[in-house]
Amino acid sequence: MILFSGNRNNDGWSMIVQPEVRAMEGYPVVLPCTFSHPQHSQHSSLQVLWRLGHGQDATVLYRCMSRPRAPTCEPGPKQDQRYRLEGNPREHDLSLRIHSAALQDSGRYYCRVEVQGREHISFEDKMGTRLRVEAPPKILALSVEGSKQSGYRALCRVQGSPLPDVQWLSPDELLEGSPVGPLAQEAPALYHTVSQLRDVEPGQHYTCSASNPLGKEQATLYVLPPRPPPSSGAPPSLLLLLTLSVGAKVILLVGMGVWLMQGGRVSCWRK
């Protein structure tokens, strides 16, 4: 069942919006907004605005002007093409379409209509529509850091909404990882988490598994064992090999993102 909220005043204005809309990352989404107004404004120019947030921190995402007898509501020359008006203001429909929703689009949106003329009249929904953009887990990076003296740890950076649950696995058992944080409380950080696995041992496989209600993704890391020291007595080159391998793995993560999202395994290896 879809619920709508509405605002009405004593001048004959009313506005109906949907309190919450859910969307999948990468797909379009429409935020419904309809209104009614006194008949005398039918022959006036109407300006439509959509804002993300309220008050001084609000960002105007979309603005267009609907003139009498004009077939469309014309946006400004610098309008972001990700947003367009799905409805027709002359038919009392201000619904906004967002192309290819991103996790950062989540927030509360407000629609507003202004009647241009001698008496500048405006009406805005006060409750707003909360947009929730959801996404299955995606493993962004898998790495190893540390030294022989301090020990090695594996790090797994994951994205998703709802925020994924992260587990570490060895070939034989479930391992105990821990979150790394706190992350900065910026919008992107709300959908990212980093998990660490301490006491990583060379010569072993470790799998990072991320899951939320929308799906599951895994990536496996193989930690290189140290080379035997050369006759000159130089120290084993484990750290150098790990650094090179991690670098190659990160390039693989970036260049083969589709392969990884389909459940491929990522390993570090010696060339």
From TrEMBL:
Question: What PROSITE patterns does the database record attribute to this sequence?
Answer: IG_LIKE (PS50835)
Gene Ontology process terms (BP) = regulation of actin cytoskeleton organization; regulation of bone resorption; regulation of osteoclast development
PANTHER family documented for this protein: SIALIC ACID-BINDING IG-LIKE LECTIN 15
The family database entries (SUPFAM superfamilies) matched by this protein are listed as: Immunoglobulin
> What species is this protein from?
Echeneis naucrates
What protein name applies here? Ig-like domain-containing protein
Report the GO terms under cellular component.
Answer: plasma membrane
The yes or no answer to whether the keyword Transmembrane is present is: yes
Q: Taxonomically, which superkingdom? A: Eukaryota
What residues form the membrane-spanning segments? 238-261
Question: Which Pfam families did the record assign?
Answer: I-set, V-set
Enumerate the UniProt keywords alphabetically: Membrane, Transmembrane, Transmembrane helix
Q: Enumerate the spans annotated as Ig-like domain.
A: 1-122, 137-222
